[in-house]
Design brief:
alpha+beta; 4-stranded mixed beta sheet; two-stranded antiparallel ribbon; 6 strands; globular
């Protein structure tokens, strides 16, 4: 996979910088924005659900599989990074609306989704709630890098 000169001693090989071109969506960015008040477990769950849903919607996002030195293959991961940012709960619905107006793909997790493990109950609760009244545990934005950065640039990392 990588070319080396067999005459090079191993210690010289280790010190050489290596550049690997990873295919990825050029000019595309993704970011997860979560309610900063979520407890750690619920924040991890929300980020996982949002990322998993984006992966299902965009199956070409992961990079190529990666073999290790022993030849064991590890599945390709998301090559462009996926920051998890924090915002006030009340800022998530307006962020979602601005992203949609900007043509950014939005994956959202209504807060009621973390109040049940029954998907039918979740669907019924969302269906019974006016769009303006939905509260969100988190939103994932995926689209043109400039638009996503513009929408999320002032938000801190979730800590």
């Amino acid at each position: 996979m990588f070319e080396t000169d067999a005459a090079d001693p191993p210690d010289l090989l280790a010190s050489r910088p290596m550049t690997v071109q990873i295919p990825g969506p050029v000019g595309v960015r993704s970011a997860i924005v979560l309610d900063r008040q979520l407890p750690a477990g619920l924040a991890a769950n929300a980020a996982a659900v949002l990322a998993l849903t984006l992966g299902a919607l965009e199956p070409d996002l992961p990079g190529p599989d990666v073999p290790d030195a022993a030849g064991e293959v590890h599945p390709g991961l998301f090559p462009t990074g996926l920051p998890v940012l924090a915002a006030a709960a009340g800022d998530l619905a307006p962020l979602r609306a601005r992203a949609l107006r900007a043509g950014v793909r939005v994956v959202d997790l209504p807060a009621v989704g973390q109040q049940t493990t029954d998907y039918e109950a979740f669907c019924a609760a969302v269906a019974a709630t006016a769009a303006a009244d939905l509260a969100y545990a988190g939103v994932l934005l995926h689209g043109p890098a400039r638009a996503v950065r513009s929408l999320t640039g002032g938000l801190p990392l979730l800590r």
